[in-house]
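Deliverable D2.4 — example input (structure tokens):
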């Protein structure tokens, strides 16, 4: 983990290094992904089952691809009652938070005889992708599904890869049941994204696909965008901590490592005005690495994308944070709420030393599906609006249109669209 002085040159170098992790850097996989998508579009279930056998070593048919109720009940038996109860509490916290995001349709009648409005309706079918194996995260199931349920999406389809014996991760299944998934299919990878985007004999075409995945899943979502809506092209996990001399180095070190353990491409960055804090954080990291189970992954992550920057002042830290636009931003300063008011770009902001990033991952309620790779400059966390569509409503009376028809005709003629102008003019011949 490098320790550097924060300046224009080191900040530029950092941003370049972080952006090197986006999906545009993996063009060598695009042909493979596009071939899979084309095959699924052309051959449906047949291609889907072939890929499942090839990649997951699991033989499926139209009768076994869908998870049954008995399989879900069996999954409940594999988990501790305590864990099931915690998932239910988490789901409720997520629901309560996202309920506050709901908006209603509206319509407005004006004195000039016009009626304008907006109709807000849920999409019909939502699709969620959930990784399998060691990368199975029940928390992501809750974060993807609960906002869709709050938006009143009627049908929620989930795809997740099976093990060799045709089973699905128990935590994933129980989380799906708690959150309200309608149906679960045992397919993964780019082939699952293609199946949801275009439909097969067994899997319905959905309106939107959300959820994390590996590079093949990310590239498949990118390729299918336009045929179907997606949440985002998610990049590796990121955490940025800005801290002053009041920060507890042990807490800061623990929080940095909480994201570095995701994978070798994860980024963990500390920017501090205190050289003493920087030094002690580094010492604490070394101590933690002796006991953590994913120490090898963490070391690779820190070697490649781990940084400690020493800043001259608070404003330099804030400017750097806005430039980095991190997925997760922790503010551990004397007045974190005051510092927060100056932050423009971040996926989620955690304030104070008792608001550790995993609080947001699992329990607090705000969504943990966040913009990465500096996209927090223009993207938002997954939210209820992602599962809604808005339709404009326009109605003018004859008198209302008569008052403005000359304006509209002039505008149309200036654009050279005489049929547009005529569509208005014929009503007043």
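Example output (designed residues):
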């Amino acid at each position: 983990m490098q320790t550097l002085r924060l300046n224009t040159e080191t900040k530029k170098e950092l941003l370049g290094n972080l952006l090197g992790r986006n999906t545009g850097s993996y063009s060598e996989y695009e042909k493979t992904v596009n071939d899979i998508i084309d095959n699924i579009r052309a051959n449906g279930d047949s291609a889907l089952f072939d890929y499942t056998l090839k990649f997951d070593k699991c033989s499926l048919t139209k009768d076994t691809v869908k998870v049954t109720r008995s399989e879900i009940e069996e999954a409940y038996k594999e988990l501790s009652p305590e864990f099931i109860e915690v998932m239910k509490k988490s789901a409720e916290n997520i629901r309560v938070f996202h309920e506050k995001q709901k908006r209603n349709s509206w319509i407005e009648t004006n004195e000039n005889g016009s009626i304008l409005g907006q109709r807000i309706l849920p999409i019909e079918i939502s699709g969620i992708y959930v990784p399998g194996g060691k990368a199975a995260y029940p928390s992501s199931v809750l974060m993807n599904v609960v906002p869709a349920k709050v938006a009143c999406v009627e049908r929620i389809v989930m795809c997740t890869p099976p093990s060799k014996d045709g089973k699905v991760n128990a935590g994933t299944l129980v989380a799906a049941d708690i959150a309200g998934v309608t149906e679960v299919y045992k397919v993964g990878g780019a082939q699952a994204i293609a199946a949801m985007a275009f439909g097969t004999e067994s899997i319905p075409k959905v309106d939107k696909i959300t959820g994390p995945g590996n590079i093949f899943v990310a590239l498949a979502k990118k390729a299918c965008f336009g045929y179907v809506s997606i949440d985002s092209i998610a990049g590796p996990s990121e955490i940025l901590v800005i801290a002053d001399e009041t920060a507890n180095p042990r807490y800061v070190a623990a929080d940095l490592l909480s994201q570095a353990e995701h994978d070798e491409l994860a980024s963990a960055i500390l920017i501090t005005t205190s050289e003493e804090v920087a030094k002690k954080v580094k010492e604490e990291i070394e101590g933690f690495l002796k006991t953590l189970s994913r120490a090898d992954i963490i070391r690779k992550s820190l070697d490649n994308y781990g940084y400690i920057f020493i800043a001259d002042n608070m404003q330099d830290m804030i400017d750097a944070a806005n430039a980095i636009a991190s997925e997760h931003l922790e503010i551990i300063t004397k007045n974190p709420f005051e510092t927060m008011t100056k932050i423009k770009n971040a996926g989620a902001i955690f304030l104070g030393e008792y608001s550790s990033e995993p609080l947001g991952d699992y329990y607090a309620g705000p969504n943990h599906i966040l913009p990465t790779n500096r996209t927090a400059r223009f993207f938002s966390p997954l939210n209820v609006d992602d599962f809604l569509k808005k339709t404009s409503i326009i109605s003018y009376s004859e008198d209302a249109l008569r008052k403005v028809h000359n304006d509209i005709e002039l505008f149309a003629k200036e654009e050279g669209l005489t049929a547009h102008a005529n569509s208005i003019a014929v009503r007043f011949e």
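The two ends are 77 Å apart (CA to CA).
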